[in-house]
Amino acid sequence: MGQLWAHPDGCAVLRYQAAPRTLSEVHAMLLETGRLLQLKGWHKTLSDQRQLTPLTPDEQELILHYWQTRKIALGPAIIAVLLAHDVFTRLSFSQVRHQAEGALLYRTFEQEAEAMAWLRHTA
Q1: Cα–Cα distance between 12 and 33 in angstroms, integer?
Q2: Across-strand partners of 101?
Q3: Which of the 8 DSSP states describes residue 80?
Q4: 3-state secondary structure of 50
Q5: CA angle at residue 82 from 78 to 83, to 5 degrees?
Q6: What is the pLDDT of residue 59?
Q7: For strand 2-7 and strand 44-48, is the pairing parallel, antiparallel, or unpaired?
Q8: At 73, phi and psi to the nearest 5?
Q9: Of the given ranges (8-12, 66-70, 80-84, 107-111), which has the lowest mean pLDDT?
Q10: What CATH number should be reported for the domain holding residue 91?
Q11: What is the mean pLDDT of the chain?
Q12: Neighbour order of strands in the sheet with 104-109
């Protein structure tokens, strides 16, 4: 469903693919992202959703619950989002984003260079 790695600038990079996915795969990707952030002592993530297909209601609920729970334990996450090309994916993500108020400090971008620059300068 995607790739995850540690960027030398001090953030996790989560690059989604357009492949079909299961709810358990979404859960596993969230857990791996959280482990990487915790291992490195980071709070920043680049979420590249350009190829992501629309989130199902169950995926939206899982993602929202994950970030809200993580905020209670570790503080808010800082996420730069590269917007999906698909308008329905953008809509499904915006529902999560609006409900996650306070759990995420995020900003959306069209260009990766701008997203990375924002992450580098955000404390």
Answers
A1: 7
A2: 104
A3: E
A4: coil
A5: 120
A6: 94
A7: unpaired
A8: -80, -40
A9: 66-70
A10: 3.30.750.24
A11: 90
A12: 2-7, 11-16, 44-48, 77-82, 104-109
Is the Cβ–Cβ distance between 17 and 2 less than 8 Å? yes
Q: Torsion angle of alpha carbons 112, 89, 59, 56, nearest 10°?
A: -170
Q: What pLDDT, in 10s, does the model give residues 68-104? A: 887 777 777 899 999 999 998 988 888 787 777 666 7
Please state the pTM of the whole predicted model. 0.88
The structure tokens listed for 68 are 């809200």
Burial class of residue 112 (count of CB atoms within 10 Å of its CB; 0-12, 13-18, 19+): middle
φ/ψ of residue 69, rounded to 5? -65, -40
CA 62 to chain centre: 12
Bridge partners (DSSP) listed for residue 79: 45, 106
The whole domain housing 38 covers: 2-121
> What is the total count of domains within the chain?
1
